[in-house]
Design brief:
The chain has 159 residues and is α+β, with helices and mostly antiparallel strands. It is built from 3 helices and 4 strands; from the N terminus they run αβαββαβ. It has helices at residues 41-53, 64-75, 110-129; strands at residues 58-61, 87-91, 95-105, 132-144.
């Protein structure tokens, strides 16, 4: 969105008499237009990961290998849970593209879950970052069966 400066607005006491408006003191332009904001790929990945996990029917994010590796990393002190697991973002100046890898629950419509994930992710990323989401590619890497156990919790080394 490009803003054009306006003169003689009711809230702008400055005008054509040579006085500077309080809104355009030093540096020229409104304060909100000075400088630029950059958003890291990881920020968009976190937002997208959280939004995707909120969708009913998404059991987990990432492939089996990345979930196993992540489970080990989660147990390392300071490692923390990775909300970016299964999410890859490419961020440009005004647009972003996302690749998500999900595991769905058995019995859900994969097409419906993918649509809901796409809608939720686009809405969250665009609302929080102002970036235009040009695409959300979703790869379903597994189905969680009802009788399958979740990944086993390793025994803690320290008690």
């Amino acid at each position: 969105m490009t803003e054009t400066p306006q003169r003689n607005r009711p809230d702008d006491p400055g005008g054509d008499d040579g006085r500077k408006s309080p809104l355009t003191k030093r540096g020229g332009g409104a304060p909100a237009t000075r400088g630029r904001t950059t958003i890291a790929d990881g920020v968009v990945e976190k937002i997208a990961g959280m939004a995707a996990r909120d969708v009913v029917g998404v059991h987990a994010m990432g492939s089996g290998f990345s979930r196993t590796f992540g489970a080990v990393r989660d147990r390392v002190p300071g490692g923390g849970k990775s909300v970016t697991r299964g999410v890859k973002a490419e961020v440009g100046e005004s647009q972003t593209a996302l690749d998500l890898e999900i595991v769905v629950d058995y019995g859900v419509s994969i097409a419906d879950v993918a649509r809901d994930v796409r809608e939720n992710v686009v809405a969250a990323v665009e609302r929080m970052t102002g970036l235009e989401v040009v695409e959300v590619n979703i790869a379903v890497s597994d189905v969680k069966l009802p009788d399958e156990e979740d990944e086993p919790e390793p025994e803690p080394r320290l008690q």
